[in-house]
Amino acid sequence: MQQPVVSSSLRVSTALLALSLFAGCGDSDEKDAAPALYAITTQQLVADPVESYVVVTTEAERAASLPLDNAIKVPGRALGVGIPKSGSLYVVSDASATVTRYSLNDAERLEPSGTVSFASLGVTELGEYQASFQFISETKAYYFDGATAQVVIWNPTAMTVTGTIPLDALTIPETILAFSGVVAQTGGQLLMPVGWRPVTGVGITPKAGVVSIDTATDVATIATDDRCGYTHDIALGADGQAYVATEAYGAAVRRVVGEEVPEPCLLRFNPRTRAFDPTFYRSLEDLVGGGTAGALIPGAQGTAYVRVLDESIAPVLEGTHPRTVASGTGWQWWELKLDSLTATRKADFPSTSGSVFLFESENQTLYTEFGAGASSTTLHVLEDSGKPTLTYQGLSFSFLQLR
């Protein structure tokens, strides 16, 4: 599982989008001076039944503990998604196929302001990752549904379904199709990585995939590659190419199961041809000098981070499930220069859990660290050697700046 933001360039595009949305709205100087406001959705996986909370806060960029008092309670595993700084939050969960819009009122609280259901399209639940929801404009958004192999096109303003993009070619018998927790946007295209795993047992299907959608025409192109597996991570290089890699879970499966599954690797995808480069292949383990390596977390332009498991901190015992390995502590940070493909250990970063999501706050890029037993989330600053900021109960797979 990875970040729903792909690069520092996204912060620029997000800011431009927010400016375009609010240009000419006549906001007062007092409102402009108001502190940034965030909606954090946290999933209480240890509860029975599972439940989630949506809390509004001004805290995100400094060390603090976030209480869940006065939070909105949502059944199931919930996400809060939307357009940054728009004042609206769209809440979904795996308990239904309904999207509920919440709008920020004058008291800085969220109140329901509309719903739309995807149930008529065969969708039974919503969730997975924040990146499953992509907002193209105020009136067009995508939802990537792995269970039905389709993209739902809907209007966030009118709260209506406007179309679908079938992706039947992604269906492989006896496998689970999983869209990524991170996308890339370049040249009018939305690039969504795809991974597969067997329905039963522990393993990785030896296939990589990228769905490229022309956001002007809603036409999708599917590219696959059989040299690698569970390539759920993507980062854009300064050369205009997209680099796709096996995520931490895929690396953990390789460590537990062995050579029966593909080695974690790095592939190159050309957005212009919408195809994988057949001449390019790199082993992630070789890039970092050996060890269990996975993930490709976008950093500064032209760089990304690979995660390497330090078994002196987190030993892998016989019978340990790969999910436990991937979400556990002990994953080092290595910076990878995408032009030279040289990797360097970032010793100033603390080792953290392997499953990481990136969130954009007003001034920082934040990444998640999940506590043992799915008990908590701590946010860290990506640009500042992993300095911790906010801590709260439960696990967060989504985060949105409301104002």
Mean pLDDT figure: 91
In helices, the fraction of residues equals under 10%
Radius of gyration: 20 Å
Q: Figure out the total of helices.
A: 5
First-last Cα distance:
27 Å
Detail the poorly predicted runs: 1-28
With strands numbered from the N-terminus, the spatial order across the biggest sheet is 3-30-29-28-27
Detailed description of the structure:
The chain is mostly beta strands. Helix content is 10%, strand content 42%. It contains 5 helices and 31 strands. The strands form 7 sheets. It has a 5-stranded mixed sheet with strand order 3-30-29-28-27, with no helix packed on it. Strands 13, 14, 15, 16 and 17 form a 5-stranded antiparallel sheet that branches. Strand 11 and strand 12 form a beta hairpin. The protein starts with 7 loop residues before the first helix and ends with a strand. The model is unreliable at 1-28 (pLDDT under 50).
SSE inventory with pairings:
Elements: H1 8-22, H2 29-32, E1 38-44, E2 51-57, E3 64-65, E4 72-75, E5 78-81, E6 88-93, E7 98-104, E8 110-117, E9 133-135, E10 141-145, E11 150-155, E12 160-166, E13 175-179, E14 184-186, E15 189-198, E16 208-214, E17 219-225, E18 233-236, E19 242-245, H3 248-257, E20 265-270, E21 275-276, E22 282-283, H4 284-287, E23 293-298, E24 303-309, H5 322-327, E25 331-337, E26 342-345, E27 358-360, E28 365-370, E29 376-381, E30 387-393, E31 395-401
Parallel strand pairs: 3-30
Antiparallel strand pairs: 1-2, 1-31, 2-4, 5-6, 6-7, 7-8, 9-10, 10-11, 11-12, 13-15, 14-15, 15-16, 16-17, 18-19, 19-20, 20-21, 20-22, 23-24, 24-25, 25-26, 27-28, 28-29, 29-30
